[in-house]
Amino acid sequence: MKKLLFFLILIFAAGSVHAQDKDAKDTVVTGTTKSITLPDIKTPLKDGAGKEYVEGNCNICHSTDYINMQPKLPRAKWSATVKKMVKTFGCPVNEAEMKAIEDYLAANYGTGS
Amino acid sequence: MDKWLTRRFFLKTVGVFTATAAIGSWPANIFADEKKLVRFPEKTDLILLTSRPPQLETPLHYFKELLTPNEALFVRWHLANIPTSVDLSQWRLNIGGNTDRELHMSMDDLKKLDKVSYTAVIQCSGNGRSFFEPSIPGGQWENGAMGNVTWTGARLKDILNAAGIKAGSVDVAFNGLDSAPLPTLADFVKSLPVDKAVEDDIIVAYEMNGAPLTMLNGFPARLIVPGWYATYWMKALTDIKVLTQTFEEFWMKPAYRIPDNACGCVEPGTAPKKTVPINRMTTRSVIVTPTQGSGLKAKNPVEVMGVAFSGGYGIKDVVVSVDGGKTWNTARLGRDLGKYSWVQWFHSWRPEKPGKYTVMAKATNSIGESQPFDSLWNPSGYLWNKIEKIEVNVI
What are the structural domains, with CATH classification, of chain A? Predict the structure, then answer.
């Protein structure tokens, strides 16, 4: 039991040192250069048909928390958004994938209308 | 029995998000209350909107302060490839186009120019977008895409004059270090009419609140267009180009446009016939304390406090109502840091009886511009300045 406790304390101690390290090192100034390291933040999407097309394509340009953030939108709005991403911004997907992405968004982040 | 109650309480308060995430059919406002705080480099804990590119909102309580701390100022980038490393010995501000000469200014060159300093509100065009009805896709900001900062830098006019603006110039375009992950996605470039660009108060800032800019707020230098929405305040500025024609690439047209009429508004859900680039900020006030849903005690004094600002005309007065708009009291205004700064306002209130109260605040600027009781709607969710209503419970 004592051994286990010691082991646990060791893990926590190592963990906290690691966290401090990370905080200190996300901004580094070397000579005339300033550099930052961006955190890797993942916000999961709902499971549903077509999710792989959303994750695979939308992530090319932006994190998918862009989707979680939106208010619930009617299908027409999601359709217009997908069209804008593909036709205006050039997301490289075909018509079938566009449809799968739109269906996923309307089903999981839609108003049902 | 106690155990059962405890378990029930636990389920109600803690389990609600896990349970509803699976069902996914709770009203949207339950999720709106669940804000995720994240910490980015040189920043404190801010509200996550998106992580790549980063869009981070300032928690409301920071607006109790007259100046917004650098680490708490909101973050908003458009394109995923944002600068994460800048070598000042390599960085240059390039000025060219329809000019007598091309300039490639170093930070030292920039700092040799006349140094100008003032306090100005920086506010995203979409600040408050999440309050619009019907709702509007885009960054779902509440009130935290704004801040009040003392900026220091060189006049844009001095930089342009050093290059020499030639006759026939129409627009001046600004580009920064950020870029798009796809060649088909338009680079984020903004422009100002040349007559606007040479106004005295527009600067290229290399300091915020007396310190170098944070990387996420545009290190090493950004444009400051006080009184105008921050979409023009190009971060990590590198290129200034004087043009002989109107600049109309994506981020100027069709993006960042408002209806071309006096209110910048249309019937909710409809499209405007004609649009213009968004420009000067509307007048608004934000209630900072008490917060929505606060519990207060009858006969105890409470300080109703907030901030008010307008697009470069200062604030003449702020009136506060604690009875849902039936009667109004003139608020006391705090220190005046100039026409581009926000002003803090205060109203001492002693609620006499228990009950629900509706607190409202309405600002008017020095040229009579004020705030509407009903929201003015536009398809992109810009210019939000409806008079706020905060409900508090007095016990």
Answer: 51-109 (1.10.760.10)
Cβ contact, residue pair B86, A34, below 8 Å:
yes
Give the residue from chain A lying closest to B220, CA to CA: A34
In the sheet where B343-349 sits, what is the strand order? B284-289, B302-309, B343-349, B332-333
Residue B252 burial (C-beta neighbours within 10 Å; 0-12, 13-18, 19+): buried
Residue A57 in tokens: 């394509």
Nearest to A26 among B41, B52, B137 (CB): B41
Pick from B224, B227, B232, B223: nearest CA to B252: B232
Which chain A positions have a beta carbon within 8 Å of B139's beta carbon? 69
Question: Rounded to an integer, what distance in angstroms lies between the CA atom of residue B127 and that of residue A101?
Answer: 28
Q: Model confidence at A5, in pLDDT bands (50, 70, 90)?
A: low
User: Which of A35, A36, A77, A88 to substitute to test the interface with B, most B CBs within 10 Å?
Assistant: A36
pLDDT, position A23:
52
How would residue B35 be classed by pLDDT, with cut points 50, 70 and 90? confident
Sign of CA dihedral B118, B60, B266, B31: positive
Which domains does chain B possess? 75-255 (3.90.420.10), 284-394 (2.60.40.650)
Q: What are phi and psi of B60, to 5 degrees?
A: -55, -35
ipTM: 0.88
Q: Convert the pLDDT of each residue in B172-188 to its tens digit.
A: 999 999 999 999 999 99
Of B82, B309, B105, B102, nearest to B178 by C-alpha is B82
Longest dimension (CA), chain A: 64
Distances B128 to B20, B29, B48, B384 between C-alpha atoms, Å: 26, 15, 15, 6
Dihedral sign, Cα of residue B52, residue B106, residue B341, residue B227: negative
